[in-house]
Amino acid sequence: MASTTPHHGSPLLYLDDLSAGQRFTGGSRVVVDEAAIRAFAAQFDPQPFHLDPEAATETLFGQLVASGWHTAGVTMRLQVETIPIAGGLVGAAAAVEWPRPTLPGDVLRIEAEILEVRHSRSRPDRGLVRIVTETKNDRDEVVQVVTATIVVPRRPD
Amino acid sequence: MASTTPHHGSPLLYLDDLSAGQRFTGGSRVVVDEAAIRAFAAQFDPQPFHLDPEAATETLFGQLVASGWHTAGVTMRLQVETIPIAGGLVGAAAAVEWPRPTLPGDVLRIEAEILEVRHSRSRPDRGLVRIVTETKNDRDEVVQVVTATIVVPRRPD
Questions:
Q1: Distance (Å) from the C-alpha of residue A154 to the closest C-alpha of chain B?
Q2: A43 touches chain B (CB under 8 A)
Q3: What is the pLDDT along chain A (157 residues), one digit of tens a residue?
Q4: pTM of the full predicted structure?
Q5: Which residues of B touch A47 (CB under 8 A)?
Q6: Chain B residue closest to A60 (CA)?
Q7: Are B82 and B7 in contact (CB under 8 A)?
Q8: Which of A109, B71, B115, B137 has the most CB atoms around its CB within 10 Å?
Q9: B90 interaction partners in chain A (CB closer than 8 Å)
Q10: In angstroms, rounded to a whole number, what is the distance separating the alpha carbons of residues B2 and B108?
């Protein structure tokens, strides 16, 4: 897996810096090749359509495709490299859709947008931010949409 | 990552064999050790609380914890070993919650239950099955709940 252009050096964003509609795209890309697809599958999703190009032709997909959880992992990496939230990206829940699979050789990138910023009543030092992230391949097709709620600290006084 | 007791040899289940309330537990276990947590994080979620036991003490978690997506990957492996669906486990969408993190040395297992079985009108050869899977550690604490909709073929005539 190759990856480029982390956000290291960008100023970290606190709850106070975030608002609905704010977008993050960044330049990070991850290439998902056949070896990476098979290695992930061997460890986490050992099914023929993720493991074996030949056996995959007999399945629903008709060819080798990445596990959806592999696409989710690559997306997380792109989020870490693209969205410079203070305290890190810590999710309590996520809703994931996979409109189409990631194919061998796909180059993935993300486009993220903040949907909602809520200050916590019980914990005034933090809040919850809802963010949607589309993962696209190099044909501009969406391979994943994940909507997550993350915990973000307020800027310390 | 060690893993035991796959379902290989169990008869494959078709849509006609499934109904709401049906449960799958199986004997599969996966040990998530510190090396596995750090290896997953280096590839997919490179944040201090997943990478570095020392740096993790300064974070929200106060110690090294597994990426939620690592817990999701381990859960997928346990599902593949526990739920013998014909055609494999193919999800179009999933809602994931992480009530608490997976810690180094945790031994994970799953308990799955079918929530709903819907026959497809447009594609009489298949249907959609909604299934909830709880992932528990060896202290019987829930580390993940994932609700997924999977595509399941009808038994061929």
A1: 13
A2: yes
A3: 444 444 555 789 999 999 999 999 988 999 999 999 999 999 999 999 999 999 999 888 999 999 999 999 999 999 999 999 998 998 889 999 999 999 999 999 999 999 999 998 898 899 999 999 999 999 999 999 999 999 999 998 7
A4: 0.93
A5: 80, 88-89
A6: B87
A7: yes
A8: B71
A9: 49, 60-61
A10: 11
